[in-house]
């Protein structure tokens, strides 16, 4: 160790974005956002609808240009050279909200191959990547020959994710990937995303409006409010600030609420928790402290 800090994989500096500048529809969507992501992190971006989450992440791979500010990938401004930007779009994979509406090729295989083909890879490499990506999202190889329109909603979303993974991005940015899925579909999608992080070492930024989901999977939370970063920290730190969260139009997970209510009634329980398992531990610890048993 030489004590020097590594360059973050991704950095956002003083980023502001105004939509439709100079028209009656002018709308400031981001206001001086600063953010730094280290390689291997799993970050959840949460916030009320309209707080700027989608606008922020569309800057990360250059789909939107900052009105002011910068986005740096490995320390380099992604907008500095237009020729670089194209390459960066392959390295920072973005899965849009409801990506299944963007499947447009005749077969699933062709859809997943779209990104790698644009990268100019050889056919054999493209075939290998399509096959790997299907494995990564837990779909059978045989699905490659089907039309995307024959698939269920959950399968279509996996195909869209496979299309992003086939580019082998260093960073994966997901905009509400579980929105509109049933509970089983949500669970499977989370499992899958967690695997991508744990087994493939992908850096992940996940946009969600579910506090429970964010707390379950991410090691750091970023709470957006009115185009700004309002709170940031580990889940326990962020959920410890229930009142501030309510001001951002969010509520803490239900289990945290119960502990906060107990504390308000004079039970000295540690409220920095957000899963049922943690709550059980905190309550047992509290009982031991109070009753000595
Ligand atoms: N294409 C657009 N044109 C104009 N305003 C937009 C556009 N997209 C989003 N906005 C506005 O920018 C703000 C932030 O929106 P968005 O980034 O979509 O938030 P979130 O993803 O958190 O719901 C909102 O006020 C929204 O109405
Ligand atoms: Mg959004």
Key phrases:
6-stranded mixed beta sheet, Rossmann fold, alpha/beta, 2 domains, binds magnesium ion
Write the layout of secondary structure elements.
Layout: E1 10-19, E2 27-37, E3 42-47, H1 53-60, E4 68-73, E5 76-77, H2 82-91, E6 92-95, H3 108-118, H4 123-136, H5 153-165, E7 171-175, H6 183-200, E8 203-207, H7 211-217, E9 220-225, E10 228-233, H8 235-239, H9 242-247, H10 254-264, H11 276-291
Helix pairs in contact: 3-4, 3-5, 4-5
The protein binds adenosine-5'-diphosphate (ADP) and magnesium ion.
The site of magnesium ion has 3 residues, from helix 1.
Task: Write a structural description.
Helices cover 41% and strands 21% of the residues. The protein has 293 residues and is of the alpha/beta class. α6 (183-200) links the parallel β7 and β8. The longest helix has 18 residues, at 183-200. The model has no long low-confidence stretch (mean pLDDT 91). Bound molecules: adenosine-5'-diphosphate and magnesium ion. Adenosine-5'-diphosphate (ADP) is lined by residues 19-20, 27, 29, 47, 49-55.
Number of domains: 2
Largest sheet report: 6 strands, mixed
Low-confidence spans: pLDDT under 50, at least 5 residues?
none
CATH superfamily of the largest domain: P-loop containing nucleotide triphosphate hydrolases
Number of helices: 11
Q: What molecules are bound to this protein?
A: adenosine-5'-diphosphate, magnesium ion
Q: What is the C-alpha radius of gyration, as a whole number of Å? A: 21 Å
Report the strand count.
10
N-to-C span: 45 Å
CATH-derived architecture of the largest domain: 3-Layer(aba) Sandwich
Report mean pLDDT, rounded to a whole number: 91
The CATH topology of the largest domain is given as: Rossmann fold
Spatial sequence of strands, sheet with the most strands: 6-7-8-3-9-10
CATH class of the largest domain: Alpha Beta
Principal-axis shape equals globular
How much of the sequence lies in strands comes to: 15-25%
SS class: alpha/beta
């Amino acid at each position: 160790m030489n004590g020097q800090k590594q360059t973050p994989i991704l950095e956002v500096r003083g980023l502001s974005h105004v939509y439709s500048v100079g028209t009656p529809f002018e709308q400031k969507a981001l206001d001086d956002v600063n953010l730094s992501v280290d390689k291997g992190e799993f970050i959840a971006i949460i916030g009320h609808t309209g707080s700027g989450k989608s606008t922020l992440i569309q800057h990360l791979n250059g789909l939107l240009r900052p009105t002011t500010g910068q986005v740096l990938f490995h320390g380099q401004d992604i907008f500095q050279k237009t020729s670089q930007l194209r390459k960066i779009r392959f390295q920072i994979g973005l899965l849009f909200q409801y990506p299944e509406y963007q499947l447009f090729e005749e077969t699933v295989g062709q859809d997943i191959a779209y990104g790698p083909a644009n990268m100019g890879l050889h056919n054999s490499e493209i075939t290998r990547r399509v096959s790997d990506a299907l494995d990564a999202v837990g779909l059978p190889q045989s699905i490659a020959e089907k039309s995307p329109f024959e698939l269920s909603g959950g399968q279509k979303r996996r195909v869209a994710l496979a299309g992003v993974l086939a580019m082998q991005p260093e960073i994966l940015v997901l905009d509400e990937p579980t929105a509109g899925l049933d509970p089983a579909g949500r669970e499977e999608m989370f499992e899958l995303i967690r695997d991508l992080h744990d087994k493939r070492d992908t850096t992940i930024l996940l946009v969600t409006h579910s506090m429970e989901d964010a707390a379950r999977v991410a090691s750091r939370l970023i709470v957006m409010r009115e185009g700004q970063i309002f709170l940031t920290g580990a889940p326990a730190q962020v959920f410890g600030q229930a009142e501030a969260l309510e001001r951002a139009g969010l509520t803490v997970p239900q289990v945290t609420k119960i502990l906060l209510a107990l504390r308000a009634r004079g039970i000295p329980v540690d409220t920095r928790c957000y899963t049922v398992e943690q709550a059980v531990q905190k309550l047992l610890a509290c009982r031991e402290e109070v009753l000595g048993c």
